[in-house]
Amino acid sequence: MVESYSKAGVDIKKAENALSATKDLILSTHNKAVISPENGFAALYEINDKQVLASATDGVGTKLDIAISMKKHSTIGIDLVAMVVNDLAVYGIKPLFFLDYLATSKLEPEVFSEIIKGIVEGCKQAGCALIGGETAEMPGFYPDKKYDLAGFAIGLANKDDLIMGKDIEPSDVIIGFASSGLHSNGFSLVRKIIKDKGLSLDSEFDGSTLGKTLLEPTLIYSSLVEELKQKTIIKGLAHITGGGFKNIERILPDATAAFISKDSWQRPAIFDFLKEQGEIDEAELFDIFNMGVGMVAVAAEPEAEKIIEIADDKGPAAFKIGRIKKGNEEVSIE
C-alpha cells in the first residue's frame, strides 16, 4: 500500500486500472510477431526464426524539477538513457540506438546543450548510438523554464539468448546490484517532502548537498549485464524502478516467490532520511524506492558467486539479498 505516494499525487492503482481498461485495444494491433511477456519491461518483436527486436521507452519524471530548480542539466540526460536501456538489459539485450524527445515552452540553447551532453554520455556508457530525436517548442503550454524528456531505444537479440526468467526455481539466489541513490523514481513524493518540511536543496547532506544527492545520475547496467551473460548463467533480471521491489514479481514463474532480506546490504543514507522526514512506513519504502538496489539478478548458487565476483570487479557492487522459494509470485521483505 503506497499511501504516501498517493498523498503526493501519484495514484498507482488508478494508473494500473486505466492501463488494464485499454489492454484489449492495444492487443487488437498485435500480430503473430509480437512476443508479449506478461508485465514485461520492454516490448519484443520477432523478425525471423532466430532474432527479435526489442524496444523500450521512458522518461525521467519529476526529477526534472530538481534539475531545473538547481539549474543543473548536465546529468539528467544520463538518467533518461538509463531508464530506457536498463529495461532492455533485463532481457540481456544491448541497445543499438537511442532517440530523444524534448518538449519545452521556449528552447534555451545553453540548457539544451547541457541536456544533450548528458544523453550522449549515457549513450556512451550503454554502448549505443544517439541517432535522432525531436525538439518541440510549445509556448503557452509549458511554463517558462520547464521542459520534459522522453527516450526510446531499440535492441536486437537472438531468441535463444533472451533472459526471460522461465527457469527460475526455488533455492535460486537473488543478487542485488547497487544503485547510485534514488535513480529516477519516487520524486513526486520526494518533492512533497521537501515542500512540506521546508527543506533546502543547498543544505548539507552526507558529505554533499541534498540537491546533489538527489540528482546523482541513474546507473546504467548494460555493459555489466553483457559481461555477465558471457561469463555466467543468469536466469532472470529485474529493473528496480517505479513500484520498488514489486518489480521482481514481473519475472517470477508460477508457484515461486521472492524473499528479500532487507538487512543484507547497506542502503544509502538518503532513504532513511526520506523515511524520517516523510514519516514513511518501512514496508512502503520498498514499494516506492530502490533502497540502494537498482537491478536484481536470479541465479543458481554456484553462478551467484561468480556474478558477485564479476560485478564487484567491474562495478557496481553486488550482494546476495534473498532467495527464491515456493509461493504465489509475490515478493516478501523480511
TrEMBL record:
Cellular compartments annotated: Cytoplasm
A GO term, aspect molecular function: ATP binding
Reaction catalyzed: 2-formamido-N(1)-(5-O-phospho-beta-D-ribosyl)acetamidine + ATP = 5-amino-1-(5-phospho-beta-D-ribosyl)imidazole + ADP + phosphate + H(+)
Domain PurM-like N-terminal: 42-156
InterPro entries: PurM-like_C_dom (IPR010918), PurM-like_C_sf (IPR036676), PurM-like_N (IPR016188), PurM-like_N_sf (IPR036921), PurM_cligase (IPR004733)
Keywords tagged on the record: ATP-binding, Cytoplasm, Ligase, Nucleotide-binding, Purine biosynthesis
CDD domains named among the record's database cross-references: PurM
GO CC annotations, alphabetized: cytosol
Enzyme Commission code(s) on record: 6.3.3.1
Pathways per UniProt: Purine metabolism; IMP biosynthesis via de novo pathway; 5-amino-1-(5-phospho-D-ribosyl)imidazole from N(2)-formyl-N(1)-(5-phospho-D-ribosyl)glycinamide: step 2/2
GO terms for biological process, alphabetical: 'de novo' IMP biosynthetic process; adenine biosynthetic process
SUPFAM superfamilies according to UniProt: PurM C-terminal domain-like, PurM N-terminal domain-like
Domain PurM-like C-terminal as annotated: residue spans: 170-330
Cross-referenced NCBIfam families: purM
Similarity comment: family membership: Belongs to the AIR synthase family.
Protein name: Phosphoribosylformylglycinamidine cyclo-ligase
Lineage: unclassified sequences, metagenomes, ecological metagenomes
